[in-house]
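Example noted here:
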Amino acid sequence: MLNQNQTPLLDALKANAARPHAPFYTPGHKQGEGISQPLTDLLGKAVFRADLTELADLDNLFAPQGVIQEAQQLAAEAFGASQTWFLVNGSTCGVEAAILATCGTGDKIILPRNVHSSAIAGLILSGAIPIFLNPEYDPVLDIAHSITPNAVESALQQHPDAKAVLTVYPTYYGVCGNLNAIANITHQYNIPLLVDEAHGAHFAFHPKLPTPALAADADLTVQSIHKVLGAITQASMLHIQGNRIDGDRISKALQLVQSTSPSYLLLASLDAARQQMALHGKMLMSRTLQLAEEARTRIGEIPGLSVFQMPRLGESPSFVALDKTRLTVTVSGLGLTGFAADEILDQKFAVTAEFASLQHLTLIISLGNTPADIEQLVQGFTTLAKEYRRTNLTLNNNIWQDVVSKVSHPLDFSPREAFFAVSETLPVAQTSDRICAEIVCPYPPGIPVLMPGEVITKPVLNYLQQIQAMGGFISGCNDTSLKTLKVLK
């Protein structure tokens, strides 16, 4: 057992920030002396004194032998991994590295269609061929959940030469699929199970939270420590266990997708967040769960609103647990879209959600929230229901089902081939039945609706245009106004 009280990287950074010396190395602001006054006024000088580069005492992220190595070993023990890598380019680079380390050009990888755009980037970088599985879909709530074990088994029977399976656990709505069963099926083919666990870094620290991916026998998992724990934005971790993943290939892949000038502020925040959870995680998560339960109960009692709950046992084969710190509120009963409700709550009541969708608002309740936050949230929803209720709202609840119904068909081109192919830009009305040459996704949550190599269909265009008309934001593509799209020539 390692001493989880230690913070080797944080301590080394603190010592080097306080050491008097003449700096003749990057960054150019020289511990804050060259920072503009407005930025100093906002952040103070202390943060810039600690904004250092890879000095001798601070180790090297790509070849760690000192304090970074020690900090990563402590993190591996705390999160239940055999080896851990710190990430400064977010979980995005971790998902990309996971695919690069397991798949080469032409290799097949099985993954859900509702993956994050980082997985599509991994396909483009690696040249891997996606075998997409439809996630289970709730047509009433218009929410895509997880892939089922049966779907994974069927895909592996059809594609026994696949090199890996990748899944999302939990989804953006907090839904956790049957990862144990998926791992068992995947391992029967002696290939690794990769998990995008960006929103599940807290699972290891409380028994009332869903089972962590590693405890469910995943081979690799990527976690955004900044999303739900106490690290700085962009600070994430990649963990592995077992012998199905080559750690050296992970290290080499990360060298392709991580900055060679890593921020020590981000790295130190990972060290500090790990210590915080190792020492106080259960207490912090108990308090967080209490706050979430209070919000869930009180908001669920407001007329016109409903709160997303765990289905009854057996109702959903892809739904074995729900992260109760993730709160999704259905507002369509008020005659409002999620986008309209989001704008009202933000501008009128200073309550800001994680993301909005056509019918829902989804909120993250974490260790940083307070009872005052919950009270403000509940009062905001109470007033919303009383004063902003509308009478007419027509939604196509099956529109996402229309979109995903086609994804079991193979792509006409691999994402990599389409990304690098010669393309042209056309008015969106002229793109139906053409091959897409760019990533197009509503954000958040950053799940691509179109990707390079896919056929553009009218249901997809209708979906994107409805999202935009309702107040959503389209990202990833060159023209975010969605007047034009890039297609293969």
Q: What stands out?
A: The chain is about 35% helix and 15% strand. The two ends are 59 Å apart (CA to CA). The CA atoms of residues 93 and 257 lie 6 Å apart. The mean pLDDT is 92.
